[in-house]
Write a structure and sequence with these properties.
The complex is a heterodimer.
Chain A: H1 7-11, E1 44-46, H2 56-60, E2 66-70, E3 83-88, H3 97-100, E4 107-109, E5 124-125
Chain B: E1 8-12, E2 24-30, E3 33-40, H1 48-53, H2 57-64, H3 73-87, H4 93-120, H5 125-146, E4 155-156, E5 159-160, H6 168-191, H7 194-200, H8 208-214, H9 218-222, H10 230-233, H11 254-278, E6 300-308, E7 311-319, E8 325-331, H12 333-345, H13 354-361, H14 365-368
Antiparallel strand pairs in B: 1-2, 2-3, 4-5, 6-7, 7-8
Classes of the chains: A alpha+beta, B alpha+beta.
Chain lengths: ~130, ~375
């Protein structure tokens, strides 16, 4: 074992002390929230006046997280199937392939991404109409 | 194992802070000295290779990034390049530069995360707090670019999925300035630290001939003084147009591997600066690719490799003319390092060095259980 005294290597780590007087980088969540950048992959939104019920989103979803659910109020006469997508957030991996394949681009992801609930059925999410 | 009760058997992991993921090492101890080591995996089996065979190409794309959590982008790049080879797709120069930028940012992020793990394994907890914060700044940029922090799902067969946000390259440049200004601090507190040197020098020594013979990759090989890097040996994307060095170090021990990584952080910053300068302003980021069910691969096979932050990541892919991939095999650095090398290196080492050696080898269990 090398017993030679490494003076530089012994003193230099004490540089860390200078950081004691710096402002901390952490934020006090939830009172202070971090700004979510534009384009963040959060919850789904679906413009019902544009959705044509084609189920392309359901077909491409590898996690089988999308079910096509019959709509109560028909907002788009071109919606031939009469169904709109519902997302299971217990299965979704936010890959956004569903939004890529959406022909009228009605299905999108918004920046909102906070969801906490103790009932697993509440993770069956009907996208907001935006 | 002997049966005369001289040896004590303990399991290091899977719930041990010093283990590099969901795996365990079964150790036979004589006092504090390790006399036998066996790697156990199976806590994480996710069967990526089999899952991919059952999915269409576009669906398979979302699985590959999960093969390596701290550094998913080399997997995405390998997958995309293999599919492009089998579907005869040529991507634009701009998309290639964006891919290099993403790969180098991912490398930087992974190296900063490694610094936290490596220093934590010998009790230098402060460095981990700093380096994880610095990595977080890289993840902030990823979030802006790709919409996700850890799993980016950005490099896609045919190019990349999104255009760069306004002013992104300026922000990246500012971040590189900041990270560069932090490096002397890491040198002072970690790489030049006498307590780290005393712990790491002469521990976990890998012989250069053995390294070549057994197919070790990445920092394990470069820590033995052997200049091997896929980016130089078999350049992909635009790496042949960029000027960078392959850091090497003599000794083959934990310290040598740490010093190689220290050099790689500087080289990655150098590459990113060149990418920012040379990035073409025009060019399609995404080539036109067939629709979901119509995207078929020709009946052929291909082998692609990418240099990740832990060594060579390679994919073998075979298509059979249908919309699904016939076979995809992943060769990551962890399998050979985690089984053959780790079991050998731990013999006659102290119990307290296990976490340090594991961290220096860059072992990641999801990639062994792909």
């Amino acid at each position: 074992m090398n017993t030679k005294l490494d003076i530089k290597g012994t003193i230099s780590p004490f540089n860390a002390i200078t950081k004691l007087f710096e402002h901390p980088n952490t934020i006090c969540y939830p009172s202070v929230k971090k700004e979510i950048p534009k384009g963040y992959r959060g919850f789904h939104t679906n413009t019902l006046t544009d959705c044509i019920g084609c189920a392309n989103c359901q077909d491409v979803c590898m996690n089988e997280a999308i079910d096509m659910i019959p709509i109560e109020e028909d907002k788009n006469p071109k919606n031939s199937s009469g169904c709109i997508p519902r997302i299971d957030y217990g299965r979704c991996c936010w890959c956004s392939l569903c939004t890529d394949v959406c022909p009228p681009s009605s299905l999108k992801l918004e920046e909102d991404c906070i969801w906490a609930n103790d009932n697993s059925n509440n993770f069956l999410y009907m996208p907001k109409d935006k | 194992m002997q049966t005369n009760n001289e040896l004590i058997k303990i399991f290091h992991g899977p719930q041990h802070p010093g283990i590099t993921g969901n795996m365990s090492v079964e150790l036979d101890l004589l006092g504090e000295t390790i006399k036998g080591a066996r790697t156990h995996v199976g806590y994480l089996h996710r069967g990526f290779e089999k899952l991919i065979e059952r999915r269409t190409i576009i669906q398979a794309f979302t699985i590959v990034c999960r093969i390596c959590v701290p550094e998913p982008d080399p997997n995405e790049e390998n997958f995309a390049r293999a599919v492009e080879n089998l579907a005869d797709i040529e991507i634009s120069q701009r998309a290639k530069y964006i891919r290099v930028m993403v790969l180098e940012m991912a490398r930087l992020g992974a190296l900063f995360l490694w610094m936290g793990g490596q220093s934590g394994s010998i009790g230098l907890g402060t460095i981990g707090q700093w380096s994880v914060h610095d990595r977080d700044l890289i993840l902030d940029l990823f979030e802006e670019l790709t919409g996700g922090r850890v799993y980016h799902m950005y490099i896609y067969p045919g190019g990349v999925r999104r255009e760069l946000p306004n002013g992104f390259l300026d922000r990246l440049s500012q971040l590189l300035d900041y990270l560069e200004s932090r490096l002397p601090l890491y040198d002072n507190v970690f790489f030049d630290n006498s307590s780290f040197k005393k712990r790491a020098i002469g521990i976990g020594v890998v012989d250069a001939n053995e390294a070549l013979k057994n197919g070790y990759v990445g920092q394990v090989l470069r820590g033995c003084g052997i200049k091997r890097d896929v980016r130089k040996d078999n350049p992909y994307l635009v790496y042949d147009q960029l000027d960078f060095e392959i850091p090497t170090f003599e000794g083959g021990d934990v310290y040598a591997r740490a010093m190689v990584r220290r050099g790689e952080i500087r080289e990655s910053i150098k590459i990113l600066r060149q990418v920012i300068k040379q990035m073409p302003e025009d060019g399609l980021i995404m080539q036109k690719i067939p629709k979901h069910r119509k995207f078929k691969l020709k009946k052929d096979d291909t082998f692609v490799a990418t240099e990740s932050a832990r060594g060579e990541f390679a994919y073998y892919m075979a298509g059979d003319g249908t919309e699904k991939i016939r076979r995809m095999q992943v060769k990551g650095p962890s399998l050979i390092h985690g089984f053959t090398l780790l079991e050998k290196l731990l013999i006659d080492e102290e119990l307290s060095n296990v976490a340090m050696i594991m961290n220096s080898l860059g072992i990641c269990p999801p990639e062994m259980e792909r």
